[in-house]
Amino acid sequence: MNRSNDSSRTVAELRDELLGFTHPSAVRSADEVQALYALLSAGEEPLAYRAAWTLCHLAPTWDAVLRERYDELVAAALDCPHAGRRRLLLALLYRQPQPEPLRVDFLDFCLDAMTDPAQPHAVRMYCMKLACEMCRTQKDLLHEFRTLVELLEPDLLPPSLRAVRRNVLAALDRNRPLPRR
User: Fold this and answer.
1) HEC sequence for 10-39
2) Cα(first)–Cα(last) distance of the chain, in Å?
3) Cα–Cα distance between 48 and 25 in angstroms, integer?
4) Measured between alpha carbons, how far is 47 from 53 in angstroms, rounded to an integer?
5) Distance between CA atoms of residues 15 and 6, nearest Å
6) Angle CA(121)–CA(180)–CA(23) in degrees, nearest 5?
7) What would the pLDDT profile of 31-89 be if each residue is shown by its tens digit?
8) Is residue 132 pLDDT above 70, yes or no?
9) 126, 90 in Cβ contact below 8 A?
10) Alpha carbons 105 and 51: distance in angstroms, whole number
C-alpha cells in the first residue's frame, strides 16, 4: 500500500490483510482498532479469530480504545462457540480494568469454567485470573473464591493451571492484583 502513516485502513482493507494470513502492519489509529473490533463479530470464524488475535497482540497503549466495549466483549466471550476465540476474548478482558459493579453472569461463567476440566487450559487460566480480579474487590466473595481455588487439587492440574493457582493464591495473600502482562 502506498499510504501515509497517518492514514487509517478501512475495515475491508484490514479484512483482506487478515484473510491473506498476513498480520496487519502496525495499527496507526483508534479507528483501525475499532475496525478490527468490528471484525470480531464477522460471520467467518477464521476472520473473527484473526481479528481477536491481532487485538490481543496490539501495544498496551491501544487497550483504552476497547474499555468502552467491555460489556460487548463479555457478551461475545459468553456466547463464543470457538474455544480459541473465547480464549482471546478473555485475554482482552483481562487486560481491561474490572468495572464496578461486577457482572455476576460473567463471574459465574468464570467460576464454572475455571473448575471445568472439559474447558481448554488457557480458558480455565484466564477465567481463574478474571475471577480473582472480580472477587478481590468484593470481600464477601473473596473467601468463597479462595476456598474454590484451594479445592483445585494441584497434583491433578496441568502445569499451566498449577502455576496460575499458585500465583492467584500468592496475590490473595499479598492483597495485590495479579500482573496484567
Assistant:
1) CHHHHHHHHHCCCCCCCCCCHHHHHHHHHH
2) 33
3) 17
4) 10
5) 19
6) 75
7) 888 888 988 887 778 888 888 988 888 878 888 888 889 999 999 999 998 899 999 99
8) yes
9) yes
10) 25
Residues 140, 18: Cα–Cα separation, whole Å: 44
H-state helical runs in 40-158: 45-56, 63-66, 70-79, 83-94, 104-114, 121-136, 139-151
What is the rounded CA–CA span in Å between residue 95 and residue 134?
13
Instruction: Give me 4's grid cell.
Output: 501515509
Per-residue cell: 176: 495485590
Amino acid at 63: D
| All three cell numbers of 29 | 489509529
pTM over 0.90: no
Buried b (16+ CB within 10 A) or exposed e, 103-135: beebbebbbebbbeeebeebbbbbbbbbbbbbb
Measure the CA–CA gap between 160 and 127, rounded to whole angstroms.
Answer: 13
Cell triple for residue 79? 456466547
> What backbone phi and psi angles, to 5 degrees, belong to 125?
-60, -50
> How many angstroms separate the CA atoms of 81 and 157, rounded?
24
